[in-house]
Please model this.
Amino acid sequence: MNIQTNRAIRQATALDAKPLAKLIDIAGEGIPNWLWSRACENDQAPLDVGADRARRSSGGFSFTNALVTEDRDLVTGMMLSYPIDTAPEDDPDTLPAPIAPFVELEKHSVGTWYINALATFPGHRGRGLGTSLLASAESLARENGKSTMSIQVYAQNTGAVRLYQRLGYDLKESAPVRLHPCQPYYTGDVLLLIKDLNKE
Model:
């Protein structure tokens, strides 16, 4: 795997499960924590549910699909990415409202290398970690025979939208945000952005 090496990026392991859970909750704007809270048993905390899922060796949210950045042996950021080879079979209307637009847009990502989540911890932002992780994702895509990248983002997250567009991602589709209980209560649309690696 030709991962970019200038930012201490490495493949995640099962031992990274807890920071992975924290970071995917940051990337998901609190939606993951809300979903995990619905699966808690007894006195289990939502973050523990998320960490258990990150430890799995299968499924989209698995350490096997994650790269992490680290500084002095502490995880500072993560990216979750993998190929989408088939359209999801779920009917968005039967899913929890926060994730419905994301699943709806996945059908337009078939054949791409999909960036499911990208986040860094506060205090480590503005250092180019996200850009380096995205470059590593592109290397993974090429090595796995994919020439197109895809990523989803809230339209109101203008900083992230600007970053992706600067790196060559273009708007392909959008889906309206559905009413949901997760802060920060985004409205508007979820955007699907696509990058053609053959144009570089």
The helical segments are 17-27, 31-37, 46-54, 100-106, 129-143, 158-166. Strands lie at 9-11, 66-71, 74-84, 112-120, 148-154, 170-176, 189-196. The mean pLDDT is 90. The first strand starts at residue 9 and ends at 11.
